[in-house]
Amino acid sequence: MTKLHFTAAPQAEDALAALRARFGDAGPDNAEIVVALGGDGFMLQTLHSFTGRGKPIYGMNRGTVGFLMNEFHQDDLMRRLDAAEHAVIHPLKMTAHNQKGAVDARAFNEVSLLRETRQAAKIRILVDGKPRISELICDGVLVSTPAGSTAYNLSAHGPILPIGADLLALTPISAFRPRRWRGALLPHRAQVRFEVLESSKRPVSAVADDFEVRDVTAVDVVEDRAIAMTLLYDAGHNLDERILAEQFSD
Asked: Strand pairing partners for 35?
């Protein structure tokens, strides 16, 4: 039988105990598959926890939205795992600069820059070293992976990206000027740099998934193809299908 390791958000402790009693738990080092119980936020935590360990992750929804998760059922778990379809995703690497130096972090959904005060942020955007927006006046701006394109990016009216697309979404958040700029689609190899203008007067934070750096002066974002994580989905309900269906939903 496939060796499993179960991990769960606090609200899924009962389900965790039931599954461990039924299937056992090989532990994080010996398991062949990690089963994560929770919502999308917990899936992101699990991805970060198991980065670089080469273990596919199968999520079951015990949270709210559960876009990245499968439906929760105990009875046919092994059959579902045997038939599961694979989705390979890559994170973004964020290098955030402030007066203290530089901090690196990874994001499987998005890297976002957000104003810290009542005043709008002013941000210069460069792509592959070339200035593209000299001054974006906004609440913020983000770079999203295909896997994250249905999350914050979609709420900010950014495009939904197919999971296999070699693209990143660059999306403004409540842009004031240029008023008509709605963002851009970038090749996955693009190197994006955000320079915060008037940073002492208009402070900005940078967030990679749930990791925040305050008072940034510049942020560099690139896709990290050296890291590949595999998500498992029930046959016929893979991430490609979910992202496609989302484009036709109400």
From this structure: 6, 58
pLDDT one-digit tens code per residue, 106-140: 999 999 999 999 999 999 999 999 999 999 999 99
* First-residue to last-residue Cα distance in the chain: 41
The architecture CATH gives domain 92-223: Sandwich (2.60)
Catalytic annotation present for 76: no
pLDDT per residue as tens digits for the range 140-160: 999 999 999 989 999 999 999
Among residues 15, 60, 11, the alpha carbon closest in space to that of 33 is found at: 60
Question: Which member of 40, 209, 220, 234 is catalytic?
Answer: 40
Note the pTM of the prediction, 2 decimals: 0.90
- Take residue 166 and report the two structure tokens written for it: 């070699």
Residue ranges covered by each domain of the chain:
4-90+228-246, 92-223
